[in-house]
């Protein structure tokens, strides 16, 4: 189940969803909030696949259902109907305990804010997924983590607490934590939402490098066209439906599509 | 809000304790003086001194607990306060509002406590008279004097709310716009003057205490030195608790294991040294006092056993010590109960305020069981640290008290402190029960935090 070397992402010999080259996919996904009288349809028959080794952006205006989609794909929320898969595992069929272990071992997370545990220092935060699993990283994993720490420029910050770091530094720690276990898929939820544009670009470049350099599959939820322009592929959601599926696009093109979606609404 | 409920309970307990204790002294004075009404004044004033001593301890502990509760509530309300500041409310107004709330909670709690205490005591008295345990005399339960503990509790709760709301002044309006990063709640304010005073008090206290023990060998006035030493050093300990509790908590934390839940729990308790010391110092005071009296009594008994030959005298002393200790333990135990309420509440509030962090941990793969274990460990760490420190301090103080007070009477030199095993067993059981009971509600709340909470932007 666990990914081995970065190269193993490509040329995978397994069958079913992963055979299609998908790190995750959802089929006929539906999510309805509230009771019968006051129900809100957040996702309406959504079927998409996140390709292995790619950096995918999920875009859409607020209320488009993009965050709900991500929550369900990451095993944080349950769907009203339809299936969600991570690799070959149908996660919509798993109970809370199994989902917890799945998130711990097979998924990485980068949130907009409050990414880090305030009581732990930088190293403690990066190693948190291993600590939660009750194990120490192996030698190979340790080498990988050291490499991450170096490339993310965190080497001289390891004993700092989150509140002693800038927003950009905090996000870099979150990236290191998300990549540390070499998860099958990293979910990033508006990772640049709280950053100034320079730190934001830095974070996006790092995510892109993780994807092209290590073949890390990444799904990023955002409403920022510049952030989405860093991705290999952009999925557009509006009113709970998939409305566009584009390969790499410029920020201008993305803005135009978004604007068109807003005007149609 | 659970914080207000706890402050209400603490004020009620302290007030009920004060009122009932005064009523009991009045009942006892009536019983002892019997029909001789002229005697009642003298008996009463002697008993009242004892009552006032224990009421003072209870009020002191409850003030510490309330101060801590208010400070914890404020820390959780930072955003609301910042918003109020943003739209133009002054910090002073905000603080005044908190203090006013404290006054209200104190008044309601104190009056309720007094009423409930009086009703319970009346029922108890009626049963005792009906059963023939107490003579059927004219007991006067309601008297003007009872207003005193009620007033003291109201005022102390008010003051505690004022002191605890100090942090309001440091809330910046910027914290409402969300532009400011999540700041650590760590109270980084250093108070060098306070630290120096604390250390001086402790050093002077220890010197006096040692002097008392030595002088106690040759003169019964040694106890006066010892008393001064005890008061000084203990005040120093309370004042400098933010210096003493974190290392003790850290030590206990390390003993509790190195898995992720334990490590996070240990880090949590140490993250806010001021807060965790205030949460635990009440319990430390309670346990120290209980242990002190118990060890002093047992050591006195041991000294007398070595010094006296006559077995009947020994038995009489042993009996007297036993009764006094039982009474004193109940009286001090009440303060420990108030301290425990404060600690439980502190834990509950801190879990409530960390829902985002707990959500993050759940999202990253912390199971419900691990969250529960983290909170249980945190609670264990605080109780074990408080009880262990209290036991250690109590043994020292109790031994010093026995040596300085009875050194000349026994005239057998120094003895090792006698620790009543019953006390140790009771403390350990009490600790375990408290540590576990304190986590029931917070743990349920923490486990119910949805991982999505961590993702909600804000």
UniProtKB/TrEMBL annotation, chain B:
Lineage: superkingdom: Bacteria
Keyword Glycoprotein found: no
Domain ABC3 transporter permease C-terminal intervals: 53-173, 330-448
Keywords recorded for this protein, A-Z: Cell membrane, Membrane, Transmembrane, Transmembrane helix
Keyword Chloroplast part of the UniProt annotation: no
Membrane disposition: Multi-pass membrane protein
Localisation per UniProt entry: Cell membrane
Pfam family, one: FtsX
CC annotations in GO: plasma membrane
Transmembrane segments: 45-75, 102-129, 141-164, 196-215, 221-245, 279-300, 320-344, 382-401, 421-441
Gene Ontology molecular function, alphabetical: transmembrane transporter activity
Family the entry assigns: Belongs to the ABC-4 integral membrane protein family.
PANTHER family tied to this protein: ABC TRANSPORTER PERMEASE YTRF, MEMBRANE COMPONENT OF TRANSPORTER-RELATED
Entry protein name: ABC transporter permease
